[in-house]
Amino acid sequence: MRATASVLINRVMARARLRHLQVLVSVSELGSFKRAAEAVGLTQPAVTHIVADLEQLLGAELFRRHARGVTPTDAALELLPAVRRTLGTLAEGIEALAARLADAEGVVRLAATASALSGLLDRLLPPFSQHAPGIHVQVLQADGDHFNGLVARGEVDAVACRRPSVPPQNWQFHPLVADELVVVAHPTHPLARRRRLRVAELADEVWLVPPADSLARRTLDALAEELAWRPRLAPVVTRALPLTWALLQRQRTVSLVPAAVVRQLTEAGQLVVLPLDRRWPIDDLGLLLPAEGAGGAVLRLLAYAGDHRAATG
């Protein structure tokens, strides 16, 4: 008879240790008991014993042995995401405790979307850390779906993001940076030397596009429909900024992106915003905080951001 979920949870809670979880992740990532033992500072027999103990607790085989090492079974793959989250959350808690024991004035656990990292926090956090060196800010990158879960579980104090269509219950968005979609190209692109440019003149360009679920992609699709275009799309689809910049640098392509996200590259002269006769305003970037009960350190960060909004925008 197979054990129920409640029985397995009770077993793990009563007998498993953090070392079990650490070894499970290490063996899965390294594919070898020997290399995992070296990584966690144990002997190979000790790692083998820990894995066997965990397999007995769970009533499931976790690794398949073969000539080149081991690979995780389906059972292990089901368990690994939760185990990684558990260890990551513990590490964040220890970091916050260490900061508090070091007489920090406070700790801010801040989740941030990719847009907010490069469009807001890059300018906000360096001067804030000088203004309030006693406040420790822990930054975790997370997309929209992920940060909603972090908020629901009480694992973050604030979120740096674009204005959400529906904010989490009892949380409030504070706008800090206005933004818009712009078309960018490498400075060597022929259109980068133009002083004025009509959108219609981009009909024959090759577009480097983000995934279909992105606002930029939907905007480009709507523009193409409006102007009866059939856009020529680059074979690489990405929302990763470093890869976008690299592709624009090496190929004659253009891309539709949030201005705040590429601001560092445009200010450094590594990308050029094309001077189009069309603008596409999008939602602001800002901080999402609890409407009530936010900690003093978070409120100091928000107050500083508000006072220095011109510098962050």
Outline the secondary-structure elements:
Layout: H1 5-15, H2 18-30, H3 33-40, H4 44-58, E1 63-66, E2 69-72, H5 74-101, E3 106-112, H6 114-131, E4 135-141, H7 144-152, E5 158-162, E6 171-185, E7 206-209, H8 215-226, E8 232-237, H9 241-250, E9 255-258, H10 263-267, E10 272-273, E11 280-290, H11 296-307, H12 309-312
Parallel strand pairs: 3-4, 3-5, 7-8
Antiparallel strand pairs: 1-2, 5-11, 6-9, 6-10, 6-11
Helix pairs in contact: 2-3, 2-4, 2-5, 3-4
For the CA atoms, what is the radius of gyration?
24 Å
Order of helices and strands: HHHHEEHEHEHEEEHEHEHEEHH
**DSSP strand content:** 15-25%
Structural class, from helix and strand content? alpha/beta
| Mean pLDDT level | 88
What would CATH call the homologous superfamily of the largest domain? Answer: Periplasmic binding protein-like II
CATH topology of the largest domain: D-Maltodextrin-Binding Protein, domain 2
Helix content: 40-55%
Looking at the overall shape, the CATH architecture of the largest domain is 3-Layer(aba) Sandwich
Instruction: Give me the count of strands.
Output: 11
Structure report:
With 313 residues, the chain is an alpha/beta fold. It has 3 domains: 5-84, Orthogonal Bundle (Arc Repressor Mutant, subunit A), CATH 1.10.10; 86-178 and 284-312, D-Maltodextrin-Binding Protein, domain 2; 179-281, D-Maltodextrin-Binding Protein, domain 2 (3-Layer(aba) Sandwich). Helices cover 46% and strands 22% of the residues. It has helices spanning 5-15, 18-30, 33-40, 44-58, 74-101, 114-131, 144-152, 215-226, 241-250, 263-267, 296-307, 309-312, and strands at 63-66, 69-72, 106-112, 135-141, 158-162, 171-185, 206-209, 232-237, 255-258, 272-273, 280-290. Strands 3, 4, 5, 6, 9, 10 and 11 form a 7-stranded mixed sheet that branches. Strands 1-2 form a two-stranded antiparallel sheet. Strand 1 and strand 2 form a beta hairpin. Helix 2 (18-30) packs across helix 4, helix 2 (18-30) packs across helix 5 and helix 3 (33-40) crosses helix 4. The radius of gyration is 24 Å and the shape is globular. It starts with a helix and ends with a helix.
